[in-house]
Every structure is written in structure tokens, then in C-alpha cells.
Amino acid sequence: MVRTQIQLTEEQARRLRELARAEGVSIAELIRRGVEVLLESGRGLSEAERWAKIQRGFGRWRSGRSDVARLHDEYLAEALGR
Q1: Does one domain contain both 51 and 24?
Q2: Which domain holds residue 31?
Q3: Same domain (yes/no): 53, 35
Q4: What is the pLDDT of residue 61?
Q5: 36, 1, 31: which is closest to 13 by C-alpha?
Q6: Looking at the structure, do residues 4 and 19 belong to the same domain, yes or no?
């Protein structure tokens, strides 16, 4: 692992300490988990990478929407942040 140093607000530090204590893990572990969530969210990916990630999800879940076939372009544009 790579050691790094960050600065937190007093509120962030307090809340992290409480959460770490409640979950029985270190603050560093919570920060690693948070970084992983951010990286997996697709932020920082190129448009091609985001598109590939979206395509991998096609057909996996039911949206509950009856208009996806008609409005799929709008939904994809929204997902890509256009």
C-alpha cells in the first residue's frame, strides 16, 4: 500500500472516528472503501469507458419503466451526463 496524507474538516474526522468505532475498522479502511466507491462510480472515466460500463449492465435489471424502448436515448444521455 501507498502511504498518503489528507486533511479533513473537524466534522469529517469526528464522523469517521465514530463510524470506524461502530464498524470495528480503522479510519484508513473507511477511507479506502470510500475511494473504491468513488472509483467504481464511473467518475473520471472517459466517455468510451462510461459507455462500456453502461453496456455491461444492459438486460441485468428491470427498471419498472414502460417507456425505456421509446426513450432509451434520453435515459442513456442522462446516465452519461450529457
Answers
A1: no
A2: 1-41
A3: no
A4: 73
A5: 31
A6: yes
**77 vs 11, residue with greater confidence:** 11
Quick: pLDDT tens for 24-68: 999 999 999 999 988 887 777 788 888 888 888 887 777 777 887
Query: What is the total count of domains within the chain?
Result: 2
CB-CB contact of 26 with 20 (8 Å):
yes
Confidence of residue 13 (pLDDT cuts 50, 70, 90): very high
Question: How far apart, in whole angstroms, are the C-alpha atoms of residue 45 and residue 47?
Answer: 6
Question: Do 19 and 30 touch, CB atoms closer than 8 A?
Answer: yes
Instruction: Give the sign of the dihedral formed by CA 1, CA 17, CA 39, CA 59.
Output: positive
Name the amino acid, one letter, at 45.
Answer: L
Q: Is 16 left (phi over 0), alpha (psi -120 to 50) or beta?
A: alpha
Q: What CATH number did the domain enclosing 29 receive?
A: 1.10.1220
Do 50 and 80 meet the contact criterion of CB atoms below 8 Å apart? yes
